[in-house]
Design a protein that fits this description.
This protein is of the alpha/beta class. It has a domain of 115 residues: STAS domain (Transcription Regulator spoIIAA, 2-Layer Sandwich). 45% of the residues lie in helices and 23% in strands. It has 5 helices and 6 strands, in the order E-E-H-E-H-E-H-E-E-H-H. Strand 4, helix 3 and strand 5 form a beta-alpha-beta unit. The longest helix has 17 residues. The chain is globular, with a radius of gyration of 16 Å.
Length: 168
């Protein structure tokens, strides 16, 4: 069953970690996804896969987090980050954002059911805010018109953060 909130589940098989998004990939899913992926990479995982066949929408923070993870895998010099069987809605969003060639896309049959573990929302408010800013900074690095609006978003987020600091 698809949900508007969206859930992210994970399955690890050796050095390959597969995430499955059901419903919407949102900012609330981004930090748990990022933390699990970074811990898996640190523990020796080489391949990160994001199964998007049941994903109906991805917000900008979620997309920026995917870019962060793709670049994290690339910096290691081995392995790969791939989107698996993106839904038509995800493909359309990637085209609209100018990201259709940014990610490796694999088309696969739906796998036999794995033991999936649902990633739970993170309660660390400061880490959540940092992840939102970092995800948008990642999107702001995109060339051309795709990155332009995110450069403005980052400016506004940083300005808001500065205004909330004690003593201001």
């Amino acid at each position: 069953m698809l949900t508007l909130q969206g859930t992210v589940r994970v399955h690890q098989d050796g050095q390959t970690v597969t995430f499955r998004v059901d419903g919407c990939g949102r900012m609330t899913n981004s930090l748990p996804l990022r933390r699990f992926a970074e811990q898996a990479l640190a523990a020796g995982a080489t391949d990160l896969r994001l199964d998007l066949r049941h994903c109906t929408y991805m917000d900008s923070t979620f997309l920026g987090t995917l870019l962060q993870l793709k670049r994290a895998v690339e910096r290691r010099g081995q392995g790969r980050f791939a989107l698996v069987s993106p839904s038509p809605q995800c493909c359309q969003l990637l085209r609209q954002m100018g990201l259709e060639t940014t990610f490796v896309v694999l088309t696969e049959e739906e796998p036999v059911e794995h033991d999936w573990t649902e990633l739970c929302a993170d309660q660390d408010a400061d880490a959540f805010k940092r992840n939102v800013v970092q995800a948008h900074e990642e999107l702001a690095t995109l060339e051309g018109p795709a990155g332009a609006p995110f450069r403005e978003v980052v400016r506004c987020l940083k300005q808001e953060s500065e205004a909330k600091k004690p003593g201001k």
